[in-house]
Write a structure and sequence with these properties.
Biased composition (Polar residues): 403-413
Strand order of the largest sheet: 5-4-6-7-19-9-17-3-22
Helix content: 10-25%
Main location: cytoplasm
CATH topology: Jelly Rolls
Number of helices: 10
Protein name: HSPB1-associated protein 1
InterPro entries: Cupin_8, HSPB1-associated_protein_1, JmjC_dom, RmlC-like_jellyroll
Number of domains: 1
Shape: globular
Oligomer: single chain
CATH superfamily: Cupin
Subcellular location: Cytoplasm
């Protein structure tokens, strides 16, 4: 080995909070990790739980070789900033291979291929919500490269996971997921997450247009909000974190955020040895936390899995109610123009008869679950405008008529607060009083010094092929079309169908309707 060069293979060791070291030790056993996930009510970073996952090496170049020649659907959006969200209904779509994506992303002079109409300096591309079971349908062995069993979910791997590949500026509009909680592993590049707690829902101006089963969108572009139109957004509690893949840094770390995976490299000069800290992280997003996610590096790759929760049984009733109302009103308004209100993740609008079947199936499933479980936890509605207080609903024993003839729907008291699980291996995502500066500019010169800021098809979606929308317009026409779609603001002088729907399918309203439906029925 030449003088001054490093050894070829690092030795991975783990250090406990007191600094002790032991090879290949993860900070949490699966049972403890699951206990944290099922009880934690704020976003947090798990440190060094995935350092041995083969999926750590799944950068875009590697995936392009694995998926050689496979056509993938990319969502195309504009890098220019507007106060109006770029919903999926306002974007264009391209079918391309990962090789073609990487070529376009690196070579701005390229004028051929499926991305030829999109100037790399003006547009971003996003292959989002790509389920492993469809993407790797002929390479199922690769599912084992992802091991969510380390977090206490035996047998859970890539088969229950989703892949995300994007370019600089690619993002997901602010929304909350109706079902489950979320675990996210950043493989390549960095993504900035903007998160807001469930009690901020009134300040996020929720909407179900575009309609997508299991997603509630915000009318606000949270990174460039129109505060004149949405003044209540000032009250929202923004939490931010930049999620990045494994990084090697100096031995010194900030007290309270030391991470436990170390990389030892033996240097060939003077027999000296250098030990560095490597950060390997998984983001936990609790149930019903709003999130806006943006790619802030030239290429980003992420893997996630939505974890089912007990509360999902009632949430499916709420979603069935929402589907019925949205489809009924929007198809009556304009039967021929579903693309304007139906998200591309939905194949087509469903009939009223089908939606009735969905609702009855959801209610039946809820009661089936009640028969096998004494206590079902739900989010009980608070009508005074305060945040929703988590209570216990004893469905089997307390849904009965009392002496006054009324039914007792919500009973129980708050559980005693448990000791904080946070420490060097579990870092909370901090709240920010102001929005962090945008990193879209000068991203290539970044030194990557933001592990966790020191200040700080979802599994419920229909599993189906998305409709192909390949655009062959000239670049100017495409740019004008997207700009037009994303800058129109509704008139304030009349009540539209969408205005009515936003009230009828507000999450608080559908929760109340679902509870009333269940309250009127018995086991």
């Amino acid at each position: 080995m030449a003088a001054g060069s490093e050894a070829t293979t690092p030795v991975i060791v783990a250090a406990g909070a007191g600094g002790e070291e032991g090879e290949h030790v993860k900070p949490f056993k699966p049972e403890k990790a699951k206990e944290i996930i099922m009880s934690l009510q704020q976003p947090a970073i798990f440190c060094n739980m995935v350092f041995d996952w083969p999926a750590r090496h799944w950068n875009a170049k590697y995936l392009s070789q694995v998926l050689h020649g496979k056509q993938i659907r990319f969502r195309m959006g504009m890098k220019s900033m507007s106060t109006v969200p770029q919903f999926e209904t306002t974007c264009n779509y391209v079918e391309a291979t990962l090789e073609e994506f990487l070529t376009w992303n690196c070579d701005q002079s390229s004028i051929s291929g499926p991305f030829r109409d999109y100037d790399h300096s003006k547009f971003w591309a996003y292959a989002d919500y790509k389920y492993f079971v469809s993407l790797f349908e002929d390479k199922t062995d690769i599912f084992q490269d992802v091991k969510w069993s380390d977090f206490g979910f035996p047998g859970r791997n890539g088969q229950e996971s989703t892949l995300w590949i994007g370019s600089l500026g690619a993002h997901t509009p602010c929304h909350l997921d109706s079902y489950g909680c979320n675990l996210v592993f950043q493989v390549q590049g960095r993504k900035r997450w903007h998160l807001f707690p469930p009690e901020d829902t009134p300040f996020l101006y929720p909407t179900r247009i575009p309609y997508e089963e299991s997603s509630v969108f915000s009318k606000i572009n949270v990174v460039n909000p129109d505060l004149k139109r949405f003044p209540q957004f000032r009250k929202a509690q923004r939490h931010t974190v930049t999620l990045s893949p494994g990084q090697v840094r100096g031995r010194k770390w900030q007290e309270g955020t030391q991470l436990l995976l170390l990389v030892k490299r033996r240097m060939d000069f003077g027999g000296r040895q250098s030990t560095r800290v490597i950060f390997i992280k998984v983001l936990f997003v609790p149930r019903h936390w709003w999130h806006y996610v943006e790619s802030i590096d030239p290429v980003t790759v992420s893997i996630n899995s939505w974890i089912e929760l007990e509360e999902d049984h009632l949430a499916r009733v709420e979603e069935a109610i929402t589907r019925m109302l949205v489809c009924a009103l929007k198809t009556a308004e304009n039967p021929q123009n579903t693309r304007a209100w139906l998200n591309p993740t939905e194949v087509e609008e469903t009939s009223h008869a089908v939606n009735c079947c969905y609702l009855n199936a959801a209610v039946s499933a809820f009661f089936d679950r009640c028969r096998t479980s004494e206590v079902v936890e739900i989010q009980a509605l608070r009508t005074d405008g305060e945040h929703m207080k988590k209570e216990e609903l004893n469905v089997c024993n307390h849904m009965e008529v009392g002496q006054t003839g009324s039914q007792n729907l919500t009973t129980g008291t708050d559980k005693p607060e448990a000791a904080s699980p946070f420490g060097p291996n579990l870092v909370p995502v901090a709240q920010r009083s102001e929005e962090p500066p945008s990193e879209r500019g000068g991203i290539f010169g970044s030194d990557g010094k933001d592990f966790v800021d020191k200040d700080g098809e979802h599994f419920g979606k229909l599993h189906c092929a998305k409709r192909q929308q390949i655009m062959s317009n000239s670049e100017n026409a495409i740019e004008e079309q997207i700009a037009s779609n994303t800058t129109k603001a509704p008139s304030q002088t009349f009540i539209s169908t969408d205005d009515l729907l936003d009230c009828l399918v507000n999450p608080q309203v559908t929760r109340m309707v679902a509870q009333l439906l269940i309250q009127g029925r018995s086991l």
